[in-house]
Amino acid sequence: MEANVETKKPDENLCPSCGKVKQYPTKHLCFYCYRRGNMGTMKLIVLEHIKAAEDTKRLSTNELVDVLNRFQYIGKKVNIHQMQNFIAKLRSYKLITSAKRRPNGVGRPITEHMVSKSGNRFLAKYKHNWMLGLLVPIKFKGKAQVMTQDHRDRASSIRGKLMKHEYEIYTFIFPERRKL
Ligand SMILES: [Zn+2]
Fold first, then answer.
1. What is the pLDDT of residues 114-137, one digit of tens each?
2. In this structure, which of 40, 46, 50, 115 has its CB flanked by the most CB atoms within 10 Å?
3. Is residue 123 part of a domain?
4. Three-state DSSP class for residue 115
5. What pTM did the predictor assign?
6. How far is the CA of 17 from the centre of ligand 1 (A)?
7. How far is the CA of 104 from the centre of ligand 1 (A)?
């Protein structure tokens, strides 16, 4: 009978992100994919959006908030105050540089952001990790982040799904679950 139940509704027990069994069927994803979706992913997408806009223009904090709020996977709305703090953090890590500019040569100067050289390097690594199905941050604190064999299996399954374009690259990203 048990086998019957499993074959009847396999999807409810499987995580849509990694395709493997979830710890709790009522949750949307498995623990690994939730953690992967929110750990360090705000940094990844903020750097990526600044970078993506760079060719045509440098984004101000306000514009960045607008862009992020149009990003369909962000979930919760990003507010300007949190973004200012986050930008300050990125600047203190030297991942971005900021410069003031007067749009028309007059009026109040607007601060605009650019990904720094080391920011570009980190962005490439974050993106690389994400595409490999791994957790985004390069360094972790504490034992909680150790990759077990189960995590490795899930990562390799995610990697396969991303390569086969079974879903969009950022379908399972949840930066809103972290404090900005
Ligand atoms: Zn999963």
1. 999 999 999 999 999 999 999 998
2. 46
3. yes
4. strand
5. 0.84
6. 5
7. 49
Number of folded domains that form the chain: 1
Token pair 């972290």 in the structure block, residue:
178
Report d(CA 24, CA 88) in Å as an integer.
38
**How many Å apart are CA 28 and CA 114, to the nearest integer?**
36
Tokens standing for 1? 């009978």
Which residue, among 61, 79, 60, has the nearest Cα to 69 in the 3D structure? Answer: 79
CA of 131 to the centre of ligand 1 (A): 14
The enclosing domain of 56 has a CATH number of: 1.10.10.10
What's the pLDDT tens digit per position in 12-31?
A: 899 999 999 998 888 888 99
Place of tokens 């028309």: 104
